[in-house]
């Protein structure tokens, strides 16, 4: 899974993602003018040699999206050399993972989604990983955890969430962790780019967009 050929194919897929087709009804806002980077870490667990993805839960003290699950990362600063530098800096600030531990695969195509900043995923590998190695900054992060790829691929883990605006998106539920919203979308996209066809679950073989129209049944009229 972590061989050079797999790496090249995954990053090529991530750099050639189709543009998100924005619904005409969704208005632009100021957040879309900013840029962020997130770190998608493929962790090789030290005790099992299993491959997992690293997630964080945002601090309850944050004003926006508190306690939601996300990938490490954040807004790009002027001092950041590039998006890779941004992702590694934010990761080290949030969970104390030194950039020297990361084998970088590269950065991906910027993802433009409604009502949030432009997101550049940065992919890398962390070998000999154990969650106890992290030093969490509790001002920003409530907890950090890794989820085995095999758990994300179980049919019972793949679901959808329905938004009030009439759109739905991919969700992954593993134990008490519910990965939804933008992080659910990024997880879905990355797994589709990483995995060969014979390892994809049925849900990952479906070309689901971040949000797709959901037709609400018409209201019944009472006589």
UniProtKB/TrEMBL annotation:
PROSITE patterns found in the cross-reference section: NUDIX
Keyword Manganese: yes
Keywords of this entry: Hydrolase, Magnesium, Manganese, Metal-binding
Domain called Nudix hydrolase: residue spans: 33-174
CDD domains recorded: NUDIX_CoAse_Nudt7
Any one GO molecular-function label of the UniProt entry: metal ion binding
Alphabetical list of Pfam families matching this protein: NUDIX
SUPFAM superfamilies per UniProt: Nudix
Cofactor(s) needed by this chain: Mg(2+); Mn(2+)
Matches recorded under PANTHER family: MITOCHONDRIAL COENZYME A DIPHOSPHATASE NUDT8, NUDIX HYDROLASE
Name the record gives this protein: Nudix hydrolase domain-containing protein
């Amino acid at each position: 899974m972590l061989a050079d050929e797999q790496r090249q194919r995954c990053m090529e897929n991530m750099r050639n993602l189709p543009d998100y087709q924005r619904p005409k009804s969704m208005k632009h806002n100021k957040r879309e003018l900013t840029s962020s980077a997130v770190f998608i870490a493929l962790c090789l667990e030290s005790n099992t040699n299993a491959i997992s993805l690293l997630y964080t839960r945002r601090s309850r003290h944050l004003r926006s999206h508190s306690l939601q699950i996300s990938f490490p990362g954040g807004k790009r600063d002027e001092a950041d050399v590039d998006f890779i530098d941004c992702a590694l800096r934010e990761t080290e600030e949030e969970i104390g993972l030194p950039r020297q531990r990361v084998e970088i695969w590269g950065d991906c195509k910027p993802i433009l989604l409604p009502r949030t900043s432009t997101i550049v995923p940065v992919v890398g590998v962390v070998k000999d990983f154990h969650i106890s190695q992290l030093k969490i900054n509790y001002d920003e992060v409530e907890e950090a955890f890794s989820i085995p790829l095999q758990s994300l691929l179980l049919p019972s883990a793949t679901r959808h969430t329905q938004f009030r605006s009439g759109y739905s998106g991919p969700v992954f539920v593993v134990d008490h962790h519910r990965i939804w919203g933008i992080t659910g979308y990024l997880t879905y996209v990355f797994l589709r780019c990483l995995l060969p066809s014979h390892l994809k679950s049925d849900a990952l073989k479906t070309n689901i967009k971040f949000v797709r129209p959901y037709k609400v049944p018409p209201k019944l009229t009472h006589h």
